[in-house]
Amino acid sequence: MTTELIGASGVAGILGVSRQRVAQLARVDANFPEPEDIFSGRRMWSPRVIEAWALAHPDRGPRHNALALPPPGKATENTWKIYELAAKEASELNHQRASRDHLLLATIHSECPGAARRVLDSFHVTQTELRSVVKKDAGPPDNKVDGVLLPVAVHVWTERANVKAVELRDEVVNSEHLLLALADDWTGSISTSYLQRRGIDSEAVRERVLALTDAITAPDTSPATRPLPSRSLVQRIPRLEEPTLATTPSGHDPHERKPWGSAVFHDDAGRPLRRASALRQYFLDCDGSPVRTTEGSPVHLLTDDDGNKILDEEGHVILVPVEAGARSWRLRSQG
Prior knowledge:
Number of domains: 3
């Protein structure tokens, strides 16, 4: 019987509104159809009954054709909060890079926005329990990290969370959407594999999320956005004046010939430039010539001692000149 019925997301699709608007209509509109069944805690309706109600009620409230997602390179405030919590969890475990484990720990944090914590609580999963599982892979206690790298893979998971919010016809992206995204691939990390061994599979997570959030009404506002972080817990430095670049040997302006390539740079004698024992990479223009300042120094992005990009106070990468033999090419990040 339940296979012929639809939940709040399906109702929202028929009515052209958000899932939260469906919950509101069911609560305040006396003429809204009563659910015909309760499946795993979810209210279920007959599509024909909803379609008949829609014909008689053309004014169903704010239309919800698509979720207002942030533009490329930006994230909502909720996603930013998850990034910050994930970076905090990684830092406390002395991990240099955030991963799915830290994202999952972030979703169960008391300060995390959304319903993921309630979902995991309903499975009797606690933050202390998950943290102890991940802690087995913690770095040495004397190996404190100065900054936590948020790699591209972390942003990929939050993009998948955006997709989940779109699929559910929700008004904002929250932690429960990230939990759904993580549950789609419940293997490959310490914490998610642990949950799978406990019998908490992706279908169970989805049913529990829907059961606990179908009645939640989110604010009908477009989410504020901020630039995506490339690193968290890194102290941004005041914006530096970008060095003036010399024209290439063929007379072209390097700024007009981006994107630049990157290769090991050699000095005029053909010897690779080194910092300690590590070879460095430098920008090359489209002709294969090193990009230099007007003083003849090669240039690259400012990085910390781990080779990670440092951002200025506006969140931009910093282009700096590099001289052969110089030891001040990088700045140490600070928590």
